[in-house]
């Protein structure tokens, strides 16, 4: 049995051992989309996954860890997907542009907002922070049929935006195709990145939003969230 087989089997065994059927039922009601879950809280998932990191750092290379994480995501399980962020944490600094196609394939397995956001922000986003030119490769994601791929295009920019690593042109190239998207999860993703970007580029975001009077209400509400009240009122007046 390979190292990846051992860790996958061991982690899933640990998840099953700590399963909470009552909490799993509550989680399934909380998520709007169908999910497969053992009912574990996120801190517990992280603790179980973290226990495997010393062995991975000692015995595995980056390619092994990437393959393991793809297998975890492919299970479709909530906890398996959440474990990816924790397992990858010591290895994200080793990611290079050549690994982007692997991460692109991971996105095909996203099936809920929790896994989408965790992996996009902390793994894909960590790569983009160090190699911001890769932001352009998110643009094709915005045309994807999957709502999670379209959301991932936005939230993968959270860390680069917060650290000032991407330009207005790079951000707006991703949000442009999504400004009229009807999906609420996509609207929240686009609004989130515009909100964070507005902290350092408030005027640009306000002018940008004025170009889209038909943008979704959820998107606009998120985008204006961190702006001063007088700016929000001015913007609403401009849209009236």
Descriptive labels:
240 residues, mainly alpha, globular
Summarize the structure.
With 240 residues, this protein is mainly alpha-helical.
Low-pLDDT stretches are none
- Rg from alpha-carbon coordinates: 19 Å
User: What is the overall number of helices?
Assistant: 15
What is the number of E strands?
A: 0
- One letter per element, helices H and strands E, the order comes to HHHHHHHHHHHHHHH
Structural class: mainly alpha
Overall spatial form: globular
Mean pLDDT, as a whole number?
95
**C-alpha termini separation:** 64 Å
User: What multimeric state do the chains show?
Assistant: single chain
Helix content class: 55-70%
**Main beta sheet, described?**
none
| Percent of sequence in beta strands | under 5%
What would your notes on this structure say?
It is a single chain. With 240 residues, the chain is mainly α. The protein has 15 helices and no strands. It has helices at residues 3-17, 21-30, 42-50, 53-59, 62-74, 78-88, 100-107, 113-130, 147-155, 158-162, 168-175, 184-198, 202-210, 217-223, 229-239. Helix 3 crosses helix 6. The radius of gyration is 19 Å and the shape is globular. The N and C termini lie far apart (64 Å).
Outline the secondary-structure elements.
Elements: H1 3-17, H2 21-30, H3 42-50, H4 53-59, H5 62-74, H6 78-88, H7 100-107, H8 113-130, H9 147-155, H10 158-162, H11 168-175, H12 184-198, H13 202-210, H14 217-223, H15 229-239
Helix pairs in contact: 1-5, 3-6, 5-6, 6-8, 8-9, 9-12, 11-12, 12-13, 12-14
């Amino acid at each position: 049995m390979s190292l990846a087989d051992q860790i996958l089997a061991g982690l899933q065994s640990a998840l099953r051992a700590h399963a909470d059927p009552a909490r799993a039922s509550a989680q399934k009601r909380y998520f709007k989309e169908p999910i497969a879950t053992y009912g574990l809280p996120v801190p517990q998932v992280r603790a179980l996954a973290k226990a495997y990191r010393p062995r991975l750092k000692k015995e595995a290379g980056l390619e092994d860890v990437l393959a393991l994480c793809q297998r975890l995501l492919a299970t479709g399980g909530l906890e398996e997907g959440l474990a990816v962020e924790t397992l990858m944490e010591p290895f994200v600094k080793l990611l290079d542009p050549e690994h982007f196609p692997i991460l692109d394939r991971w996105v095909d397995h996203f099936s809920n907002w929790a896994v989408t956001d965790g992996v996009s922000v902390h793994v894909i986003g960590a790569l983009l922070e160090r190699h911001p030119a890769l932001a352009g490769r998110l643009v094709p994601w915005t045309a994807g049929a999957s709502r999670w791929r379209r959301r991932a295009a936005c939230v993968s920019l959270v860390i680069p935006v917060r650290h000032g690593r991407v330009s207005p042109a790079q951000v707006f190239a991703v949000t442009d195709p999504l400004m009229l998207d009807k999906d609420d999860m996509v609207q929240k993703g686009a609004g989130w990145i515009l909100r964070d970007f507005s902290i350092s580029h408030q005027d640009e975001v306000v002018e940008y939003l004025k170009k889209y009077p038909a943008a979704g209400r959820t998107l606009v509400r998120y985008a204006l969230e961190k702006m001063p009240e007088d700016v929000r009122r001015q913007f609403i007046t401009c849209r009236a």
